[in-house]
Amino acid sequence: MTDQKEMEEAAHHVVSPVIYIIVGSTLLVLTGATVWASYQEWGNFNAVAALAIAVVKAMIVVLFFMHVKYSSKLTKLTVFCGLFTFLALVGMTLADYFTRAWGRW
Amino acid sequence: MSDSTAIAAGAHAAPDHGHEEHPAYLRHHFENVEQQADAAGFAMWLFLLTEVMFFGGMFTAYLIYRNWYYPAFVEASHQLNIFWGTLNTAVLITSSFTMAMGVWCAETRKQRGLVLCLVLTFILGLGFLGIKTVEYKEKIEKHHVPGFHYSLQSFTDPQSDPEIYNEYHDKPLALDMARHTEVYFSLYFAMTGMHALHMIIGIAILGYMIFRARAGAYTAGHVTFVENFGLYWHFVDIIWIFLFPLLYLISRHQ
Questions:
Q1: What is the dihedral of CA B96, B102, B104, B106, to 10 degrees?
Q2: Which of A104, B44, B81, B97 has its CA 20 to 30 A from that of A2?
Q3: Domain interval for residue A86
Q4: What are chain B's domains?
Q5: What is the pTM of this model?
């Protein structure tokens, strides 16, 4: 019964504009940060930093703009399962291609 | 996703099956409004996950080819203009913000605010496409669109392209490696083109929503359509959040 009530309250959660303003500004700051980082000489870590910032930005968008933080357990589980499957597929594909030449030189 | 049809059907339905007991937009196969909204949100997320897989295939192809033809991908990506890319990222993030504010306006039944937010989102979306057009035009002029007229000159003889050369001082690529810059631009146009197509579809739906919002369709308690369109718009934003660093930024250094 309480679960049902929680779900209904989650469905009605109105995220306040203050959070949207904070989130929007954070995303713009992170955009500036990723451009700044790309001008540094960090070797391989340039790509790592750029992707790490992109992942953080995407998570902020999913959690706040897309309301997943305030959504039902069903939505949270759906999003998590989908992203997990996606990462497993991409991870295995890349692991295959990136290691094919190992030991051949 | 459908909203207006439910209201219209409710208005014309026979009066003897209990319409006074629930809002007109609640379809009969749902227990209550919450269940209906949950089902629509769940379905929207499933759709977005298929979209993640679709774009994911292209991202994976990009990473594999970048790994194989690394020098070609580095020099080809030097052709992209970081200023336009950064500006476009800012424009798109701002449009996501105005869309989120639009959802808030619908939830709190502010009709004028909702129309304003949708119009701003619409304009920012068009602004993004406008900037993309400027970038595409430059690629067409330099013959960097894959196909019969593709030119390797900027890569086999970088000094012939002084604007890029003065910033990056790229070394000339051997002909067989230079040819693979065409792979980079194929993926560039496929990925940004599919993203732009999603923007165009989104902008068309926004136009329809502005028209409906002015009639008061989304500020009478039924916000599912605006909410789920918001999810779509933010998803398109997320795709760009990954396209921007991968295409523009990570190959600035050799």
A1: -150
A2: B44
A3: 72-105
A4: 37-249 (1.20.120.80)
A5: 0.88
